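Q: For a teaching session next week I want to show students how multiple molecules come together into a single three-dimensional assembly. I've collected the sequence lines for a complex. Could you give me the predicted structure tokens for the whole thing so I can convert them for display?
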Amino acid sequence: MSGAGRRPLVLVADDDPDIVTLVRFRLERDGCDVVAAGDGRAALEAALERTPDVAVLDVTMPRLDGYEIVRRLREHAATRMIPILLLTARVQETDVEDGIAAGADGYLTKPFSPQELGRRVQAALGR
Amino acid sequence: MSAPAPTAERPPRLVLRFAAYSALALLAAGVVIFWVVRHETQSRAERDLAARGERVAARIRAELRPSDVVRPVSPQRARALDRAFADEISDDLVLVKVWTRAGVLAYASDHRLVGARSQEAGDLEAALAGRTLREVVNMADEGARRDLKTIETLVPLRQQGTVVGALDLYFDYASVARDVRATMTPVGITLGVALLLLYATLVPILRQVTRTLAARNERLAEHAGELRRALDERERAERKLSAAERGYRSLIEQLPLVTYIDNLDETSSAIYISPQVEDLLGYSPVAWLGDTEFFPKVLHPEDRERVLAQHAEAYAKAEPFTSEYRFVAKDGRDVWVQDHVMIARDDGGKPLHAQGFLLDVTERIRAEAEREAARRDLAAQNERLRELDKLKDEFIALVSHELRTPLTSIRGYTELLLDGEAGALTEEQRQFLAVVERNSHRLLHLVGDLLFLAQIEAGKLVLDVGALDLAALSSESVEAARPAAEEKGITLTLATGPVPLLAGDRARIGQLLDNLVSNGVKFTPAGGRVDVRVRMARRRAVIEVRDSGIGIPAGERQFLFQRFFRTSTATEQAIQGTGLGLAISKAIVEAHGGAIEVESEEGAGTTFRVTLPVGQQASETAPAAVAL
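A: Of course. Below is the structure for the complete assembly, covering every listed component.
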């Protein structure tokens, strides 16, 4: 995943810039580089272009939702193995099942604790 | 054979009558023939006599001298003439007279009335004019002494072509009678015999004829009798039939429907329609039957073409059918009828006419239309409800998302600050941020409760059923509430007996326990107690949370588990809360197949008691949807 000395790259996608900033702050403190996207299309393009080490995707985004991004990323060899965490404001169990079925590795329910998110990303990075 | 006696008596009488008639007819014929023959014979005898008279006259004339016819002859001359005529005078010729031109009797063989004038001037004049006359006279009338029937022949006497007088000869009629008798006797006998023979042959023929006639009469009478009986029979049958028909008709005309009979030809015109049609449509049968185009006219314009086509087809094929259509009644109402048409056939199966009945189905059609409208309304309402339900789901999802997203930022940034990620905080800053954190937590809790409640109401509460340890869960809830209890100086205790593992949703039961324990702490004044007991009773797990709080007014207990309900004391004492906790608790308990009850005494405290089934029952009821 990450070579020695290189900071891992995390894709953070959410249509709420406050949340992007919050997550970016937490992850940069934890020693990651962050590439941010404000909508689903931008997130998919960034993921395909930069091949991040972990992707943190909001489920409910304009233009392309989190599930769809997961599905698309799993179609490409370069992005097939990227660990993906979904952020969802929904609470019904079906939402979670949808996410896992689409190929996500885990999810966090909004509101989430930034510390908890940090721990989940570090775990995904294998640290 | 109703009258055999009169027909048997008739022939003899008839024969007698015929015999009498034929006898009379033959007699009349005989008389006529006899009379005709006799008359003919007599006139021939008379002619013969006259002819003789003329011959005698011719001879006598020769004897006469011209002077003889100028004046009455002298007696000598008369005697001379007597002698001259003596030869001629015989049995037959009884009298000879000679008349002068002046009509004076010049000579008479009997010497009487000589010199007298003729009393029959007409006859004499005719003779003097040159004509010969013949006449049957009685001698007495001629002035003779004898009464004798004679034939008088008056012959003109001529000298050098001029009539100078008349010779009057009287022949005894007896010779004629003799001649007639001589001729008529055999004729009469022959005629009589012939007629008798004819009659004799006629009578048997008559008998035969009358007998034949009688027989024929008898047969005719028999036939007549039979005919009469047949007619009587038929009349009786017809009377009976017409009585039956009247019966059927009155029955049919009493039914609550309109019956009719139509021609099967292309006009399809009505032959009969029952009077109920007036009740149905307001038109009389007379109006209906008086117009062959009446039926099409009263059909509803929208149905007319269809119904006429149906009728035409069915009548042409002579097939029965049933149809529903509308009439427009006289008062303008639409009248729905069900028309049942049948084809009446004769014994040979040949179609005679169409007959049927019309049922008024207006009410049924109206009811159906109303039902259909109601069904459509209901469907539309259902559709609206589904729409609303969907909207509600969408609203809940939206609210959930739209509230949780800003809460994420509030809580996330607060956490960063409290973690000192933005630099060291003063104690005051930390306290203030703690307030933000606590309230954001309350807000989050409220969002969770609202969402949960919405799920319950939508019947979408799904339990994540697993084995749960009630004692351990109770302990967690009590420990979670302990800081708040200690802050208020409240004694919080937990006593757990042996309770088996339950089947249930760990998170929801935890939520239930949290609600009850935190409620107890919230509504108990400083220095009070909250005691939690978990035990088994009658094979059910029992959770009791007893507080020494303010209590619940008796009148308000029934509303306690309603959402958003807050007791008056809670409101008065400004105790924070949304009124959702107990409603949610009740829903959770009931979803697990359990029950929740409350005992309370105002000012003394309140006890909430939850009983939950142990074992399989719980898992069975686990996915239950519960409405509040």
